Amino acid sequence: MKRALTLIALLAGVHALAQQPSTLALAPAPAPAAAALAGTPSGAQQFQLANGMQLIVQPDRRAPTAVHMVWLRVGSMDEVDGTSGVAHALEHMMFKGTKDVPPGEFSRRVAALGGQENAFTSRDYTGYYQQIPAERLADVMQLEADRFAHNQWPDEEFTREIEVVKEERRMRTDDQPRAAMIEQLYASTFIASPYRRPVVGWMSDLDAMTPQDVRDFHARWYVPANAVIVVAGDVEPQRVLALAQQTYGRIPPGPVPVRKPREEPEQKGIRRIDFKAPADQAYVALAFRAPRLERVQELTASDRDALALLALSAVLSGYDGARLQRALTQGADRVADSADSGASVVGRGPALFLLTGVPAAGKNAQDVERALRAEVARVAREGIGADELARVTTQWAASTIYARDSLQSQASDLGSNWVQGLPLDADDRLLQLLRGVTPAEVQSVAARWFGDDQLTVATLVPQPRPANQPARAESAVPSGRMH
Questions:
Q1: What's the number of domains the chain is made of?
Q2: Which of 79, 91, 369, 441 is catalytic?
Q3: Does 240 lie in the same domain as 99?
Q4: Which residue in 125, 205, 252, 443 is a FRET match for 333, CA 20 to 30 A apart?
Q5: Over 60: is that where the pLDDT of 23 sits?
Q6: Rounded Cα–Cα distance for residues 135 and 405 (Å)
Q7: What pTM did the predictor assign?
């Protein structure tokens, strides 16, 4: 079942190499006081350390385990032209050591503690996480605080690792026609916004990247006031706060760089791109400029439109047998093998509403494009039923509750909310707001946000495969990148 409400799709992965754990003693010196900022009915508490770093703790004592995460409000959107991909490259290099922890040792120590860990980069944020037995929380906090403040490695480590990043780009984008097309779609949709650049970076920028580019990005953005520690699990908030003060609290404060506004100018007409690549099937993606959800309280008209677009996407493709599936992929004269929608309205940058489809045999990309737009036009003309909307809101509620069975999901939602500047309980507030969306509001946004002047269309034009190139599964990849 799709979770249309999710604010972040965290790509889970594991680095696991065995080694005996080391004993990590915490300094006994008193730590500066921290300020309590907020709390929720679920027991989550938010604090700010004296150096500006924030801490969010969510107790959940159903199992003797804990998830520890560090989220930074920095991603590929904070890069500058010529160094695209540096946020993701730094994420890789954070595993390459400190003065006291040699390259590769971080992962071995976490595994020896009985844990698993990884990291992720997106346009909006970078994050690091470990899931460990709750009694080993102090160990991973010491390790993570050390590499946050003292990440260092020889140039040769970067020279090797940047080749790993390049190969990741080849495998996930260059050799995946649909993913490569989506990359071109973003580059064509946005002119001023840094969302136009791929998270993994352009290959020419990766070729030209230097160790100092990465070190400079770390020094600029990895400052306490630009980060939050999130701990969820079998923990006691005051104990976690004491550990945070003894580890992260000793990192010297630093200024968060001033972010320049890079607002996307108004689009003045439809844009189209044809993307030619060896592929077996065509693929079409329609990107409509959309309003962003900026708050979950004291909503503006733009916020209400963003909520209604979330609901519209769920009505179109949020469950098996939804409108796009019924209208485009079923029946003797079906137009598409697959069709989907997505409302990317939560983020630090501009929002998009995407419609995508793969033509069925005997049909072409233009047929799919017309059919996708016709379904939105049908909603604008005829509206939707209250029962149809109730179905998707019930699914949102169920998936939100089910997600709370996962410590990782709880921690990820808290970290994502912090990155977006939303309150701790934003998911509960958002669910309540979505329950209040009316059929009339969904019909209204379908009529107002899908004009040509807000549209960029990308079409994958299949080309013959070279004789020595095997066929590969074709899929678009998410905007985030995992180490």
A1: 2
A2: 91
A3: yes
A4: 443
A5: no
A6: 20
A7: 0.89
